[in-house]
Amino acid sequence: MKAEIEKVIQDMRPALRADGGDIELIDVNQEGVVKVRLKGSCLGCPMAQMTLKMGVEQYLKKRIPGVKRVEAV
Q1: pTM of the predicted model as reported, rounded to 2 decimal places
Q2: Of 14, 38, 42, 43, which has the fewest beta carbons less than 10 angstroms from its beta carbon?
């Protein structure tokens, strides 16, 4: 599943980079929890949590059924 998630993250990167941010996949566990690190302007942005939950998490869940939750580390 990690390779699938990395591919989907690659698809999201241009949108994040357009705003000066980026995302890095850190880990995926057996329960479907994906850990990512927000980078660039996403780090410390007041909208980062919304981007993470309403953007990244929803997109990953839609594309990969095994994903249950996304957390920032």
Answers
A1: 0.89
A2: 14
At 44, the pLDDT band (50, 70, 90 cuts) reads confident
Residues paired with 55 in a beta bridge: none
CB 23 within 8 A of CB 13: yes
Note the pLDDT of residue 45: 83
Quickly count helices (H) and strands (E) in the chain: 3, 3
| Residue 40 near residue 20, CB atoms below 8 Å | yes
**In this structure, what are the phi and psi dihedrals at residue 69, rounded to the nearest 5 degrees?**
-160, 150
**Domains plus CATH for the chain?**
2-72 (3.30.300.130)
